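Problem 12. The chain below contains 425 residues. Write out its predicted structure in token notation.
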Amino acid sequence: MANWEVNKFGGASVKDAKRLMNVAFLMEKFPAEKRMIVVSAMGKTTNALEEVLKTFLDGDDHYLELFEQVRQYHLMVAEQLFQKNDTVFHKIHALFDQTLSFMQHVPVHHNDYIYDQVAVLGELASSRILSDFLNARGIHNQWLDARRIITTNNDYRSAKVDLRLSQKNLQKALEKYSYSCFVTQGFIGGSEEGISTTLGREGSDYSAALFANMLQANKLTFWKDVDGIWSKDPNTFEDAVQLPEVSFREAVEFTFFGAKVLHSKTIQPLVDRDIELHVRSFLSPEKEGSKIVQTKEIDAEEIPSTMETLTDNIIVTQLETKDYSYISLASLKEILEQFDRLGIKVLQVSRSATTLTLVHQNVDKLSKKHWMKSFLDEHNMCQSKLGNLVSHINTQSISGKPLPFANFNVHYEGGSIKFRQEVKF
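Solution.
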């Protein structure tokens, strides 16, 4: 399946009629021999649908009013793009009516199952409007229902993809339609039984990477509201610089430490096919943006890639042996396994002879003093004075120094712990 390009448009890039017109402009400005367009829900639609769901599950009839507000917004956007008698309005109403009927007749209250049946509405509606608008502009395309392509299991809200079956489904769809351009949805999939599923929040990036993988695309382009990938958040750090090229390994490190440019699951499908990922601005399409590649060309005079982020909700847990004995590797292994069982992401580990320091996500289970008391007693360990003194880190900075992470530093300052980890790729 050569000569394919995949373009992914997130919620900000399709949030209203003006942005949808801009998508059409970009597709005309940057033509491709074969193209798959992957679309998110408009703006904050998913958040609005989550509020509808919360109200509905609480048994409050106010959900109907909230639901109609979401419907009316999509109709308003369509009114700015189409003539009054256009068939797109019937398609929008059909999608909303089907979802509302489901909510009013759902026999069970399995919240995650209900979430997936309702949340998919945002992507279905936005992609329908975009597909019809592109056709009206002469960019002929076929709308595809990603729930019939991306086959998953029934782990609602975080469904696992069966890439082999998904590949077969996509091949059948491409053989059925004689188009060179298709519009589909990110974030959503479907089980083999035909039940809607979702891939997790921010899963649209992952969807786009999956389509790029299955199409063996030449490249995948994310159209975002930033010019590319930056060394730091340009809205926070004045000395941030754009990185024209980043390796896949660097990108994985960036996402692990909280960079918001792309979803953490996005990289692997691209690595498998050696597909370049381009990050460009839909606001400034004349700029080249950044690209993520398998192996980055190294310039001897190049300044090392660095990353610095501000991360909230991070905790330092410091443990020490009660009798000043050495911390064994067996104890370290069991403690890390315990964190993994609890589903807690550990960002950094520092081990001295008698002290173990862990920097990790703030989780309620760990904020209590007795969170692992029996486990620690078994290993002759306790929480240190630093751990009892303060737990919240206000600032996490990442920049500089070679891998592996040799320079770990935690210090108390002004009522907070500041964690600084320097990394050079």
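Discussion. The domain at 314-421 is CATH 3.30.70.260 (Alpha-Beta Plaits). Students who got a different answer should revisit the alignment rule from Section 12.3.
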